Amino acid sequence: IPALSQAQLRSAAAARAGADRPERALELRPDGIAYLRPGPFYNIDPGAADPWDPGSFVAFVDAAFEQILAADARALLIDLRDNPGGDSSFSDPLVAWFADEPFRFCSRFTVRSSVAARQSNLERMRLAGDRVSPVASLYESLYAANPPGSLFEVDFPAAEPRQGDRFEGPVYLLINRHSYSNTVTVAALAQDYGFARILGEETADLASTYGAMEQFTLPHTGIQVGFPKAHIIRPNGDDGARGVVPDVAIQTPLGPDSWDRVLSQAAGIVKAELAAGDVASAAELP
Question: What is the CATH number of the domain that holds 267?
Answer without folding.
Answer: 3.90.226.10
